[in-house]
Amino acid sequence: MKIIKNGDVCTPAGFAACGIKAGLKKSGNTDMALIFSETPCESAGVFTSCRFAAAPVKQCIETLKKGNKCRAVIINSGNANACTGKKGLENARKMAELTAGKLKVSSSQVLVCSTGRIGVPMPMDKISKGIEKAIASLSNKGGGEASAAIMTTDTFAKKAAVSSRIGGRNVTVAGMAKGAGMIAPDLKGLHATMICIITTDADIERGFLQKSLVESAEKSFNRITVDGDTSTNDTILVLANGVAGNRKIRQNSSDATLFRKALDYVTTQLARQVVVDGEGVTKFVTVKVEKAASEKDALKCAKTIANSLLCKTAWFGCDPNWGRILAAAGRAGASFNPDKVDLYFDKTCAVRKGMGSGIPEEKLAEIMRNEEFSVRLVLNSGKSACEVWTNDISYEYVEINADYHT
Amino acid sequence: MKIIKNGDVCTPAGFAACGIKAGLKKSGNTDMALIFSETPCESAGVFTSCRFAAAPVKQCIETLKKGNKCRAVIINSGNANACTGKKGLENARKMAELTAGKLKVSSSQVLVCSTGRIGVPMPMDKISKGIEKAIASLSNKGGGEASAAIMTTDTFAKKAAVSSRIGGRNVTVAGMAKGAGMIAPDLKGLHATMICIITTDADIERGFLQKSLVESAEKSFNRITVDGDTSTNDTILVLANGVAGNRKIRQNSSDATLFRKALDYVTTQLARQVVVDGEGVTKFVTVKVEKAASEKDALKCAKTIANSLLCKTAWFGCDPNWGRILAAAGRAGASFNPDKVDLYFDKTCAVRKGMGSGIPEEKLAEIMRNEEFSVRLVLNSGKSACEVWTNDISYEYVEINADYHT
Question: Can A193 be counted among the known catalytic residues?
């Protein structure tokens, strides 16, 4: 497996993309991206489980259900097209139709994603002109621009790419993602104002592609949380156009293992970038829970710690107030004996058998002054473990969210 | 029922109290309170369900289990005596013994509460001298001082008192509470760095007293959240000394109804004061959920909204970003049809049938500029309702919690 530095969604063969200004953002920044494959793609998706799923989420689901090979994804930022009723769904479908018409493909081959403010009707005149402009701007060098055009409160574009020798050919998997706030995972589905588009030139079975995406998302995007809040528009899509000409990747083959490794690399890299770019983030914190009675218990503890406002503000302040970490674990609903619990900051033991280890607070504060550190809770109640990636909560987080208008 | 303005834990007959400086707080503020009843009290308690329950919580539970009539509660702030192991429990028991010895009562008649930093050994020399000083300072005018001495990040002392004609006598119920951060409710138990002591001169059956406390806490302290975080030391105690000389209050009597009304008034007032004084709070927000399929669904939605960091920061900024409220309700795990949902800010409709009502944002922002407003989510899916009291999250919240040392 070879990591491709500065790779983007156009790195796999046969994809073009662009990022243009449709005039949806007050800031005047680019706000529309288009990804196009020269050949039809096996496609798969994972979506928010929020009851207020946005119109574009519904459009993606209904389109993927048809089983067509897709050709394009049209994405806008600056407007979520969520809580916009029947008209919103009509508009999402119209976005697919307009894109399809100009690209001369079927509208059931076009997927739609939106991100931005909830509850604002989509300005279809701007969208329509934007789509025209986007199609005229398509280029096999447009991947970087596409990843910039989907940003909202993001401060950098998120990209990753990797290539592997699979089925006799070089197969490339690449992706882009956006998301900085309203980021929180859930075991049942995917949550976050998070959009991630993965492209690959692999030739792959559709069923295995969907299964791979679900499992890969579970171990990447489903293991991050920025603010514990969740969204209406979360979408991960993968398009596989088969241009690499490899032997078709099928489940339970050695090719499948290689593909999964490449896909996992891309989803993990993108998920970590979302946390690094979390709103107002100053620190990247890995929360590990080990020796839990079950993986479910480990995950309950890790997510409760990672979402605790008191833990996150203490991390921001480099305050080694480990009592907050234990208190969060204690209310997580996991089963363990509090008198057996150990806690580490990186490799330094802060708590042994449920009590302070006696380490001077300054030693712990020193670790917390790093931009990245880990909190490792050892429950000593079983054999299960898990890892969640999160961040601190700063003044800037409050500032960004006290008045958010893209 | 008559509300007693400026009433405190010494307002019911037969109680003395005090608040003194034991030297536990760096600030030099008072940090120890003692409440003493001249006659033995029927006593009841509700406690944290956090797995890391603090030593004083264990001491209270073991003492109440003995079924003795209690005489005193000794409370310190500045140190939580949590995550302090066997030595911590010994110290909590020792606090009861020292208090009992000087008061010439049994140590199984003394309850202990602690609040402050987790994981710091209790300085027993200071505690011992403090207890001596506290006993010498007991006065039937000391209720106000007691309520000040239990504060940590609180900015005002929380008190409430009411009297009712019950069983032929004037019966008084009064209480004090502390708590500003690590405040979050849970259906199964009581959570929060919250200590609440209720005194009453009522003559009442012990079993009914405990049942009343559980039910009353469920509709008051269990309906508040400041930061969604929870604690190791939460305690509500009620002491009933019977000095009023009323006909003994028994379950299912008209006296019982009158007592419950008085108790509910005190718990509700104190719970609301905790939210008003929440760390960094600028707004008191009532989250109402109506026409839910079940009370459980209503509570899920209300608590998810009340704990959502994105909702709370938007409230702080007077940003009428109602999409965040719907998104929170949508991930709460409640069952409802998103296309039927209405949302109101006070009496102004923001969302009708899952879509923006068309009201100008400025109208909603105007409501949000008040110090108190309500958010009312009408699910139109059933007949159940609930109400939760919460607050916004401000820069000051982050400041307070980035470096907390009492």
Answer: yes
Q: How far is A297 from chain B (nearest CA, A)?
A: 13
Domains of chain B: 2-276 (3.60.70.12), 284-402 (3.10.20.340)
The per-residue pLDDT for range B146-173, each reduced to its tens digit, is: 999 999 888 899 999 999 999 999 999 9
Q: What angle do CA B157, B159, B161 make, to 5 degrees?
A: 165
Nearest by Cα to B34 from B20, B45, B47: B20
Nearest CB partner across the interface for B356, out of A119, A317, A399? A119
Chain A contact for B281, CB < 8 A? no
For A150-293, strand residue ranges (E) read 158-166, 169-178, 195-200, 235-240, 284-292
**Euclidean distance between CA atoms B279 and A301, whole angstroms:** 25
**Strands of A355-356's sheet in order across:** A355-356, A348-352, A342-345, A372-378, A284-292, A384-391
- A331/B49 touch (CB, cutoff 8 Å), yes or no: yes
Closest chain B C-alpha to A36 CA, distance in angstroms? 31
Has residue B343 got a pLDDT over 90? yes
Strand partners, B20: B32
CB contact under 8 A, B85 and A328: no
Angle at B381 between CA B295 and CA A62, to 5 degrees: 120
Which residue in A11, A48, A99, A193 is the catalytic one? A193
Among B31, B9, B11, B13, which Cα is nearest to B22's?
B31
Order the strands of the B342-345 sheet from edge to edge: B355-356, B348-352, B342-345, B372-378, B284-292, B384-391
- Tell me which residue of B35, B37, B109, B100 sits closest to B69, measured CA to CA: B109
Catalytic residue among B99, B115, B193, B235: B193
Q: In whole angstroms, what is the distance from residue B363 CA to residue B62 CA? A: 55
A 96-135 residues inside an 8 A Cβ radius of B: 117-120
How do residues B315-338 score in pLDDT, each as one tens digit? 999 998 898 899 899 889 899 999
Q: Alpha carbon of A41 to those of A71, A203, A386, B340, B361: distances in Å?
A: 6, 9, 34, 37, 43
- Interchain CB contact of A213 with B (< 8 Å): no
From B401, which residue of chain A is nearest by alpha-carbon distance?
Answer: A313
- The ipTM, to two decimals, is 0.81
A100 vs chain B: nearest CA distance in angstroms? 28
Interface of A with B in 54-83 (CB under 8 A): 80, 82-83
CA angle B326, B328, B332 (to 5 degrees): 115
Facing residue for A309 by CB, picked from B227, B231, B394: B227
Assess A277–B contact: CB distance below 8 Å, yes or no: no
Residue-by-residue pLDDT tens, chain A, 406 positions: 999 999 999 999 999 999 999 999 989 999 999 999 999 999 999 888 778 889 999 999 999 999 989 999 999 999 999 999 999 999 999 999 999 999 999 999 999 999 988 889 999 999 999 999 999 999 999 999 999 999 988 889 999 999 999 999 999 999 999 886 666 544 343 334 688 999 999 999 999 999 999 999 988 988 888 777 767 788 889 999 999 999 999 999 999 999 999 999 999 999 999 888 888 889 999 999 999 999 999 999 999 999 998 899 999 999 988 988 998 998 898 999 999 999 999 999 999 999 999 999 999 999 999 999 999 999 999 999 999 999 998 888 888 878 754 3
Would the pTM count as exceeding 0.80? Answer: yes
Contact criterion met (CB < 8 Å) for A117 and B230: no
End-to-end CA distance of chain A: 38
B396–chain A nearest CA distance, Å: 8
Radius of gyration, CA atoms only, chain A: 22
Cβ contact (<8 Å) for A329 and B186?
Answer: no
Q: Which residues of A touch B58 (CB under 8 A)?
A: none
